[in-house]
Design goal:
Structural class: mainly alpha
CATH superfamily of the largest domain: MetI-like
Helix content: over 70%
Oligomer: single chain
Radius of gyration: 25 Å
Strand content: under 5%
Number of helices: 11
Number of strands: 0
Largest sheet: none
Length: 277
């Protein structure tokens, strides 16, 4: 019995060391401590630019912003929580507009090989255009900064969803379609009951990429259109030479991006049913 207990203890120790999640967590914490340590020493010893704050000062500023995110002392002095809410509203609206266009259009194009080949040059032409290139065009056509922000978000986040939807629809197993036709299903019923469920993992994967692009674009858009929002907050803090606030905003933007990505990753896993996308 003593030998058996020692054997179990040994196996538990081995499994503890082989736990990949634990290993990853330890590596992350260790690397974070090292980065913060180098940052603190570099700032204190003058290795960085004079504007660069210490890690400790930045952490204090970060805690100050997130512990009281919804204060309001006027149009140019609002908590980071209000800025985030404004940016999220713009992102969700722009992303919704792009999704309502991209998904139906992607389904329609994906059902026709000829149409897919005809539309592909437009996709390849417009997909790599920088968000900043759309801003002056949006301002010139719409003459409204809020509408321009939504336009830029929608036009830049459109392509991943459109491409993934088209790909998912065009690669539905032909056997599924043949069975549905043999049972007398209408074209609309085939699309609704066969095509969309089969293409759902690809569609959600496209939406996941698109929301990341939308959140990425909003910072640049708000820097140029002004008003409120996390992008305007970063620009305003730069004008005040508050580097700690800028770094805080970067961290907060990254954390919100992680939450948005995890949200769509959950739905992607839910509709995949164990399939690899």
């Amino acid at each position: 019995m003593v030998v058996s207990s020692k054997s179990n203890l040994s196996s538990e120790s081995i499994s503890w060391y082989q736990d990949q999640n634990l290993q990853a967590t330890l590596i992350f914490i260790t690397s974070l401590v090292v980065i913060l340590g180098i940052w603190e020493l570099g700032a204190r010893l003058g290795f960085f630019a004079e504007l660069m704050p210490t890690a400790s000062a930045t952490l204090v500023a970060l805690w100050g912003w997130i512990s009281n995110p919804f204060y309001d002392y006027g149009p140019n002095d609002k908590g980071i929580g209000w800025q985030l809410l404004v940016s999220l509203r713009r992102v969700i609206l722009g992303f919704t507009i792009s999704s309502l266009i991209a998904i139906p259009l992607g389904v329609y194009i994906g059902l026709s090989k000829v149409l897919s080949k005809a539309i592909d040059p437009y996709i390849q032409l417009l997909k790599p255009v920088s968000p900043l290139a759309w801003l002056p065009l949006g301002l010139g056509l719409l003459k409204n900064s809020e509408a321009t922000a939504l336009f830029v978000i929608a036009i830049t986040s459109l392509w991943p969803t459109l491409i993934n939807t088209k790909f998912g629809v065009s690669n539905v197993d032909p056997n599924y379609l043949d069975v549905a036709r043999s049972l007398g299903a209408s074209r609309w019923r085939i699309v609704w009951k066969v095509v969309l469920p089969s293409a759902a993992p690809n569609i959600i994967a496209g939406l996941r990429i698109s929301i990341g692009i939308a959140w990425l674009v909003i910072v640049a858009a708000e820097m140029l259109i002004g008003g409120t929002g996390i992008g305007y907050f970063v620009w305003n803090e730069w004008n005040n030479l508050s580097i700690t606030s800028i770094i805080t905003a970067i961290v907060v933007v990254g954390m919100v991006g992680i939450v948005l990505d995890r949200f769509f990753a959950f739905w992607q896993d839910l509709v995949s049913f164990g399939r690899k996308v």
